[in-house]
Structure formats: structure tokens, C-alpha cells
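pasting for the record
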Amino acid sequence: MKQTHMNRDQAEGLIQRLLDLEFADDEEGEVIDVLTRGLVCPHIVTLIYHTTPELPVSEIVDRAIACQPFVAGSPSEVAAGTDGH
């Protein structure tokens, strides 16, 4: 399992508050940034707002935690910590 920087309860709470429109417009972007970094998932906005049918909050968090960000390089280069250059 990948390392996240936020626990499930924190993530679910923030996502639910976004869905309930509990943040001012200027705060929404900051919360999304916190979720993106905390869950290490660049697709969190899609999971929250653009999935049909709408996902339950727990499923959004499950999918975000399972998200594997793209890493350039072959698997052996990534494991060795090099990019082949």
C-alpha cells in the first residue's frame, strides 16, 4: 500500500465538507490541494466531482489511496532511484 500523509478520517471529513459546500470559494482550492498532497492522488478532483454515478465518500478515499501516480523510467530504474540518464 502506498504511503499517504493524511489518515482516512481526515480525508473523509474534508471530502464530505467539500460535498456539503462548507467552504468558501477561496478555501475550496486550498482544501483540494491538501487532499491531493495528503492522499498523494492527482485525480482527487475527478473522484469528488466528476464521477458518475456519484461515489460515496468512503469509496472516493479508497480510490484515492489506491491511486498510483505516474513515475517516469523503467521499473528497475525507479527501484534503483535513477532515471536512466
